[in-house]
Amino acid sequence: MKELENGKKKLLITGMILIIIAICTAGIFAYGSHKNNQKAAAKVQEESVQRASQEQSLAAQKEQEQEARSIAEAELQKALSEAQSRDESIAASEAESREQAQKEAEEASIAQEKAEQEAREEQERQAQGAGLAERLAGYETVSRPAGSTGDIICIDPGHQSRGNNGKEPEGPGSQTMKTKVAGGTGGVVSGVPEYQLTLTIGMMLKTELQNRGYTVVMTRESNDVDISNKERADIATAAGATATIRIHADGVDSASASGASVLVPDSSNPYIPELAGSSSQLGSCIINSYCAATGMKNRGVVGSDNMTGINWSTNPVALLELGFMTNPTDDANMQDDTYQQLMVHGIADGIDAYFGR
Ligand SMILES: [Zn+2]
After folding, report:
1. Does any domain span residue 280?
2. pTM, 2 dp
C-alpha cells in the first residue's frame, strides 16, 4: 500500500511539477508574448510616430511649396501688371506726342495762313497807299489869304484824356442832366484813344481851314483839359463862330460796323429847331465830301436832340463821326498819314461847299 501511496505521491508530485512547469512555461510564454506584444506595440507606435513625422514634414514641405508658388505667382502678377502699366504709360505718352505733333502742325498751318493773310493785307495796304497818294495828289491845294472868307469855324475835337462824370443840362432850360464829357472809344487795332484821333484830325483841319482863308477857333489844342460839352458850345458862341464842326469817332461792340455819319439837330430838336435846316445842310456837305475823299462808307445825316454840345450851339453845328475805331479797317485807315490828309481835305471841301466856295 505504501508503495502504492508512494507511487501516487510521486505521480502527484510529478503531476504538480508538470503543472508548475506548465504554468511556468505558460507564464514564460505569456511573458514572452507580452514582451513581444510590447515590442510590436512599441514598433507600431514608433512607426506611427515616424509616419506622423513624415507626414508632418511632407505637409510642411507642401506648405512651403505652396507658399513659394503663391509668392512666385504674386511676383509674376506684379511683373505683369507693371509691364501693363508701362505699356499703358508708353501708349499714353505716344498718344500725347501724337496729339502734340498734330497741334504743332495745326499751329504751323494757322501761322502760315496768318502770314499769308498779313502779306496780302500789306500788299493791299501798299496798293491802297499808292492809290491814296495818287488821289491826294489829284486834290488841288486851296489857298486863300488869312481870314479872307470872313467866316469863323469852331472846331471841337471830341473828348479829352480824362472824362468828367459831372452833370450839366442837356440843353437850354432842360431839367435833363447829362455827363459833362464821356470817355470816348478807342482803336481796336491801333489802340489809339478817340480823344487823340479827334485832336490829330482837329489840328490838321485847323491848318487846312486857315490855309483856305477861314478864321478857326479850337475848343481845345491838347488832351489834358477839362472842358464840358456845354462849355465847348459856349466857346463857339463867344468866338462868334459861323459854323461848328464837332469831331468824334464811333465805337460799338461789333467789329463789323464801319463807316462815317454826321449828327445834326433836326426839326424836332426842342432847343434849336431854328438851326435844323442850316445844320443839316452843313452836315450833308461835310459827310458827302468826306466820304468822297476817303472812300469811307457813307452812313448819312442823322437827326439828334439829346446831345449837349449840339443843343447848346448858337450856330449851324454838325458832329462828324469819322469812322468806327472798333472796325479794324476803319481804325487802321484813320491812323494812316495819307488817309488822314484825305479826311481833312474832305471835311474842308465840305465846309467850302456849305459856304458856296
Ligand atoms: Zn465821341
Report:
1. yes
2. 0.68
